[in-house]
Amino acid sequence: MSRFNKNNDKILITSALPYVNNVPHLGNIIGCVLSADVFARFCRLKGLNTLYVCGTDEHGTATETKALEEGLTPKEICDKYYKIHKQIYEWFGCSFDCFGRTSTETHKEITQELFKSLDEKGYITQNIVEQLYCKSCDKFLADRFVEGECPHCEYEKARGDQCDDCGKLLNAVDLVKPKCKACGATPEIVESEHLFLDLPKIGPKLEAWVNKQNVDGYWPQNARTITKAWFTEGLKNRCISRDLKWGVPIPKEGFTNKVFYVWFDAPIGYISITKHAREDWKDWWFNQEGKVKLYQFMAKDNIPFHTIIFPSTLLGVDEGHTLLHHINSTEYLNYENGKFSKSNNQGVFGDNAIDSGIPPDVWRYYLLANRPENSDTEFSWKDFQEKTNNELIANLGNFVNRALSFTKRSFEGCVPGRKLNMLDEKFISDVNNTLAKINSSMEEVKIRESVKQIMHLSKLGNQYFQENEPWKAIKTDHERAETCLNMCLNLVNILSAVVHPILPFSSDKMRAQLGVQSELKWIEKFELTLNKGRMIGLPEVLFNKLEDDEIKEYREKYSGKQEKVEEDVFSKVDLRVAEILGVDDHPNADKLYVLQIDLGSEKRQLVAGLKPYMTKESMVGKKIVVVANLKPAKLKGIESNGMLLAADKNDKVILLEAKSSALGERVTVEGIESYTSKQIDFKEFMKIELITKDSKVLYNDKPLRTEKEEICASIEDGAKVR
User: Fold this and answer.
1) Strands 146-149 and 720-721, how do they pair?
2) Do residues 512 and 504 touch, judged by C-beta distance below 8 A?
3) pLDDT tens digits, residue range 423-480?
4) Exposure string (b/e) for 176-190, b if CB count within 10 Å is 16 or more?
5) Residue 232: what pLDDT?
6) Which residues of 277-286 are buried (b: 16+ CB within 10 A; e: fewer)?
7) Residue 295 contacts residue 14 (beta carbons within 8 Å)
8) Residues near 271 by beta carbon (within 8 Å), at least 6 away in sequence
9) I need a surface site. Which of 29, 92, 275, 534 has the fewest CB within 10 A?
10) Is 468 helix (H, G, I), strand (E, B) or coil?
11) CA nearest 197: which of 117, 142, 110?
12) HSE on the CB side for 495, CA within 13 Å?
């Protein structure tokens, strides 16, 4: 059943507004604009009334500071980087209907109007706030320009607004050992009066909406978990004003020297950008009849602003605004075991991609095939090369080229006839089954799965071509050779449509080589529209192979400045707290259990050889420790996605437990950073020697622990953990 009503639905798509103070890197691009572009292109091909809105987020201290760095005014910085962002996204093929800015008068007017309405309806409060003030810089420090230790997880480089490690939102004054990022001085606490959005007052209406919408809008697990945590911890008033000069001025007596907090006004930019560009903006942003479905794309750090702050603003105003339908929130894309850093020349940024000479569709394919949907993923040059050469070229490019080249060579570029047999009918059925999966995954915004199924479709074509051996059949069974090529050319035509959201430039090339000029539409069934006698165009290679020396050059160019440090083997493992939800007997093994576990942000299945040591009932509900980045493996036919840890001595086995810790929380060892997302195999994990002592689990004589507790195992000293 389709998630769309083609006759009534209007699809409104937004991408998180990128900060205008820097050049976007590949992680920024896949986290919002590129993913949203794929969905927008798909919706348009389906014939849905679609509007894709994005723009640059131009306010806040980030802009002020960048202006000081470059000796420009904030407005000049915004003008400069707006052009850079726009150029990069256009090069990547992002098909915005509106790409605007938050520094317009239109944005100022709408933001101030919404604030006044909230104030009149009693949703704005005032309070004295303790802020960090840097004497050396002679200014209040915005949240993102304070760095210190997170009070929740002890991460040493937490920002003043949010911890990048545990994801919790923070107030700058709560940081332990705060430092001014500009000069390194220790700031002092100064009082200032500020305005707050009264979330507790809006709370009941907001929670009712969230409870319904997260189901109706099939929100991903990370969005549900992060949003639920806000209600579990209790909604608190959220400050929406800042002591800055660059931003939207606050239209309230006593506060006219302040501006709105950038995360209050930034989401309003979706509305103002639409209004600035289109006269029919109200048809999209006032959803009285429920016809507009709002899809919002972002990385996971932006979730609370789109499921709590922005909806609270619109619910408080209560004027019938369009509210979020589906949120599509990714995890993070990292770079070669590290983070992207423009200042450190580490990682590939948008301008680097343009300068590389590698076509945009090659970048699009890799980013979308490696999209961090359920967990962090990593860009590596080796993987980039392998996916390009072994998937994009050897599968899709190879099929398209061999079908077209054979037709040009053997049939003088004329589409041959066809006479179907049972094997052809089976081929059509297989194609239709795959098309159904592609359509379903696209509608559910499971883009990575869509890419996988599209490549499977191309694989079916290669297999069909190979099995029919037209190079032989043309000498012995001309009719069979004709039918084979007719079917392959029609599949190329289908591929040119379904690949369009992923690879728009290649889609255009495929259609040109086929000589197809009809309107491009989404295809859900194998339609034999290319008939005998039609002339095709000139076949050309779609993609060029990436050679080893090229990859080596790119890796060295974007490897960063930092010295390489010998990694501790423990840094390669990602240990997490999980809860056992259920345990079943393995259908094919006497000593194995099949477990269902909850990692907080996702649920997984594990297989464990614990049947001789404990009952199913004794395991359910326990909070355990799992190796979250272990490569999936099939054990007696059942896939295990991770591995639980247990202590073993003298034929006694005890589960490692973390009774007071949150689900998904990292298990660490003091002095060893372990923020990896890269998968490891079982042999690599076994290099880590864990033993028990005094009911604790030790690595190099240091206990494994979470934020709240040390990991325990009630067993004799010297038990091995595995």
Assistant:
1) unpaired
2) no
3) 999 999 999 999 999 999 999 999 999 999 999 999 999 999 999 999 999 999 999 9
4) eebbbbbeeeebeee
5) 92
6) beeebebbbe
7) yes
8) 110, 281, 285, 321
9) 534
10) helix
11) 117
12) 31
In the 8-state DSSP scheme, what is residue 396?
A: I
Q: Residue 565: is its pLDDT beyond 50?
A: no
CA angle centred on 174, ends 168 and 179, rounded to 5°: 105
* Helix (DSSP H) and strand (DSSP E) numbers for the chain: 24, 30
Q: Which conformational region is residue 537 in: left (phi greater than 0), alpha (psi within -120 to 50 degrees), or beta?
A: beta
Between 324 and 184, the more confident residue is 324
pLDDT band for 58, please (50, 70, 90 cuts). very high
Q: Which residues contact 467 (CB under 8 A, 6 or more apart)?
A: 423
Helix (H), strand (E), coil (C) string for 531-551: CCCCECCCCCCCCCCCCHHHH
Cα gap 455→452, rounded to integer Å: 5
- Please tell me the chain's helix, strand, coil percentages from 3-state DSSP, rounded to the nearest 5: 40, 20, 40
Residue type, position 618, single letter: S
Mean pLDDT of the 628-657 span? 91
Find residue 238's DSSP bridge partners: 197
Name residues whose C-beta falls within 8 Å of residue 476's C-beta, 6 or more positions apart in sequence.
Answer: none
Number of Cα atoms under 13 Å in the Cβ half of residue 189 = 11
Which residues have CB under 8 Å from 685's CB, separation 6+? 573, 627, 630, 643
- Rounded-to-integer distance, Cα 562 and Cα 498, Å: 43
What is the Cα–Cα distance from 529 to 551, expressed in whole angstroms? Answer: 41
What number of CA atoms fall less than 13 Å from residue 424's CA on the CB side?
Answer: 18
Give residue 682's identity as a one-letter amino acid code: F
Residue 374 has pLDDT above 60, yes or no: yes
CB 573 within 8 A of CB 680: yes
* The two structure tokens encoding residue 537: 């165009």
Instruction: State residue 572's pLDDT score.
Output: 85
Residue 282 is encoded by which pair of tokens?
């109200």
418, amino acid identity? R
Structural domains of the chain in order of their starting residue, each with its CATH number: 10-112+261-352 (3.40.50.620), 121-202+220-242 (2.170.220.10), 372-564 (1.10.730.10), 569-721 (2.40.50.140)
Range list of β-strands (E), 349-396 = 377-379
Write phi, then psi, for 252 (nearest 5 degrees).
-145, 135
- Strand-pairing partners, residue 638, are 635
**Which pLDDT score is estimated for 676?**
57
Pairing of strands 666-667, 575-585: antiparallel
What confidence score (pLDDT) does residue 389 get?
96
* CA proximity to 274, closest of 116, 88, 101: 101
Residue 314 in contact with residue 119, Cβ under 8 Å?
A: no
pLDDT tens digit sequence for 476-506 = 999 999 999 999 999 999 999 999 999 999 9
Distance CA 211, CA 400 (A): 47
